[in-house]
Every structure is written in C-alpha cells, then in structure tokens.
Sequence to fold (379 residues):
Amino acid sequence: MSSKKRVAVIGVGTMGSQAMWRLAARGADVTGYDRFAPGHDRSAAGGETRIFRSAHFEDSRYVPLLQHADRLWGDLQQETGRELRRLTGCLLMGPTAHQQMSTVLQSIAEHGLDHEVLDADALAKRFPQFRVEDGDAAVLDRHAGFIRPELTILSAARRAEELGARIHRYTPVREIVPVGNGVEIRTDGRSERFDAAVVTVGPWVNDLLPDLPWEVDIRRLLSAWYVPTADDWFGEERPAFIRTAPTHCYGLPSPDGVSVKLGLSRALHRPVDDPNRLDRTVEPEELEIFTELIRRHMPDLNPDPVRLSVYMEGYTESSRPLMGPLPGAGNDNVVLLAGFSGHGFKLSPAFGDIAADLALDGSTPQPIDFLSTIGRTAA
Fold:
C-alpha cells in the first residue's frame, strides 16, 4: 500500500472522524468533507454521553470488534490527551427469561468477560435507584461506562489533521462518481479525484445514495435529562444502564452529577422523511412514555425533564450495519458504512479502522463477515 494513496471521507461524524484518524495514522493522504463541522449536534452524535460496553446482548459476534474498539479508545485518549471514555460499569436489567438476558450471558461466557450477575434482591439492595419487579435480574458489565460523543468526534478529527489530513467544513458532497480505478467527489463548488472514498454520511445516506439496495430507516430520537430527588444515583457506583422489558430503555448518570439521561429504542421514535428538516421541537405528549418509565422503574427521578435533545439515527432491517464496498459503483473503491442502528458509537474506533483497511487494502483482518455488504441480501 502506497503511503500516498488519496482517500476522501464523506461525513466527518461518528464514523468518519475515526476513519480519518486511522487513515491518516497509516500515512494516507486524507481529505474529509462535512456538511457542517466535526462535533455538530444535527445528526447522530449529540447528547453528551453514549454507552460503552464489553458484553453485547444483540449478537455475541460483536464482542471481538468491541475488544478491538477498546484498544483503540485507549490509543485515541493517549494521543489526544483527553478523557473520551470513563469506565463506570453498565447494568443490563430485565426479566430473567428475556432473550437479551440469555444472549448477554452467552457473549460473556464465550469471551470470558468481566461481569457480575445480580438477582432481584441483590439488585434492589445494591442499586436502590431502580425499582425491581418480580422475575427481574441484572448483569453488571464491569468493563463498561460512558463515552463523550461530541468531544470524541472533535478529538479524532483534530488528531487526523495533526497527522496531515484536511477537512472541508460546511461542504456537502452532492455526488460520488466512480472514475476508472478511482472516484470523483463533487460538491457545489468543485470536483476532486481520489483513489478511494469512505462514505459515512449517517442520516443523509438515502439522499446521497438513492439507489442503495438496502433500506436505511432514519429515525428521530429523543433524549431527556431528569434530576434525581435522592442521592442513590450518584453514590460510589454510577453505572450506565439498559432495561430490556417491558419498555426497552437506556440511561446514563450525567458526568457532572446533576441529572440522569434517558433514551428509548427504535420502535418508539418517529421516522424522518427529510434529514435536512428535522423537527427539533418536543411536544409534551412525547414525554408520556418517559414519565411512565420513571413512575414504574425509577421513582426517585423528578418526572419533569430539565433538558431535551433531538437527533437522528439510521437503522437497517436486521439492525446490523452495512459495511463494505458500495454495490453498483463499478469498482471496490467506494466503501460504505451506514445503518448502525443505535449501536455504533462504542464500536466507532474499530469501524473507522476497518474502513481504513477496506479503503487502503481492499480487505480487513477483522471479523465482519456478518456485517459485510458483499453477498448481503437487499431489503
């Protein structure tokens, strides 16, 4: 691989900033394009915190990728000198018989992950901020915690620039045109030729690539912050948490020790017809499900939020992301990363590294066969 291979990264957000860092670290000539600027809150990366976890309750095949991401989180923090991730643990709670409880224990056993199983009595005693129901149990993933999304994107993008990359801010890409053994990137003001391109445009994927053979469902997600009325939320242990049922939700005590952030799963959010016209106004009726969650499971939270945030995420039918060559491009020099279905941020350094592998070498040693676009059935 020539150190002078020219690679464009379209979208310098969650995945694009990491791809730029990994490409630049390997000596590529990297140019990024973003319709806003790294760290903006108009896509999928806002909201102050995201969950990092080692155990995976959707599919145990993610665990080796999480372990690769874990190493790279350490590298990025060391290179930038910023605390991008803090390990506080993560509780997965729900009915013992729920499928996700079984899957997370399978992934833990398969990969020997550091964890603790808590029955309902132990959960209620150790974490009294949660109201426990009959049949509940919890798994505490010890090597887990929270990530700072906006700071992470800014830091990865800045590190890429320190390594020689360039970023065209406030420059939306209008067209990606395969040309011979390369690709041409067209914006409103210019076109530029590259050897390869990595497409990481998040919720704009359907706009930029309208002929994509898979559906990426763009959803409007809402995060809400609530102030505790008791001290239990900010004791010695402050784990992130996920509840599987009856309503799938997640949450993180805020780093400043003031509030608790709550979020919901895909099915509970509205579709987005046009990512350029995201409705950022939250109506009172949208908070009813949060109010019920607090009443049922977290009664020591004040039921009226002190902060609200709206952003977007892309989901595939299988909830597995699309990673690999863009079909129909005429060559393998356009690499697509899309549809991370709410599970991408914790894995983003690994996915950025894989994007660099694919753009520079045409393959990756990482185990992504179950995510690859190659041979994947269209929606």
